[in-house]
C-alpha cells in the first residue's frame, strides 16, 4: 500500500474553510517559501529545520503546549515542502560539516537513509521530495506521541494532527490524507507507516541479495 497515493490538491476554497481557522497550530520548515498563517486569523506557527516534531525538543513541545493547552488548538498541521535544503544538506556526503545543523538533522538523515533506495526511477531531487513527504507523516506520528497530546485525548478534547505538503513548482498545497485524532487512530497509522517501512527494508534486502534487478 502506498500511503502517499492519497495526496489531494487543496483548492483555495478548501484551504480557506478547512485549513485556516482560528487557533490552528502549524509546524513548518525554516526554508519553506510558503507561510500558511493568514494575518487576520489568530494562528500559531512553529518553524524549525526540517519541520520536526521531536519529543526531545523543548522549544517545540513548549509551543505545542501553549497552542493545545492554553489556546485550545484543535487542529495541528505538519507542513512539509519540496526542495528542502535542510534535507539536502543532511544527505550531503561531500564531507562539509555544519555542526549544529548536522547534529539537529541526525533523526532526519537517519530516516532518509532508511528510505533512500526507493524508487530507482526517481532522480535525486524526486527522492528528496518523497523522503520529505514521508518525513511529514513521521512527524504527525511523533506529535501524536507527545504527552501533551495524549493528555488532551484522555481528557476527551478534540485534537487532530494532519499532514500537508507545499509544492513550490506548482505553488499548490496537498493534503497527504494522513491524520490522527485519537490514541487508537495513532496506533493504526503507526502500523500503516511501519508496513511501509517494512516494504522498503524488504526491497533493500532483496536488492542486496539479487542486485538492482529487483
Ligand atoms: Zn525545508
Question: What is the structure about, briefly put?
Answer:
This protein is an alpha/beta fold and 214 residues long. Helices cover 46% and strands 17% of the residues. It has one domain: Beta-carbonic Anhydrase, Chain A, CATH 3.40.1050.
Q: How would you characterize this protein structure?
A:
- The structure is a single chain.
- The protein is of the alpha/beta class and 214 residues long.
- It has one domain (8-213): Beta-carbonic Anhydrase, Chain A, CATH 3.40.1050.10.
- The protein is 46% helix and 17% strand.
- It has eight helices and six strands; from the N terminus they run βαββαβαααααββα.
- The chain has helices spanning 12-18, 58-70, 85-90, 99-104, 106-115, 124-144, 147-154, 183-210; strands at 8-10, 25-29, 44-48, 75-81, 160-167, 172-180.
- A six-stranded mixed sheet has the order 1-6-5-4-2-3.
- A hairpin with a 4-residue loop joins strand 5 and strand 6.
- It is globular.
- The model has no long low-confidence stretch (mean pLDDT 84).
- The structure holds zinc ion (ZN).
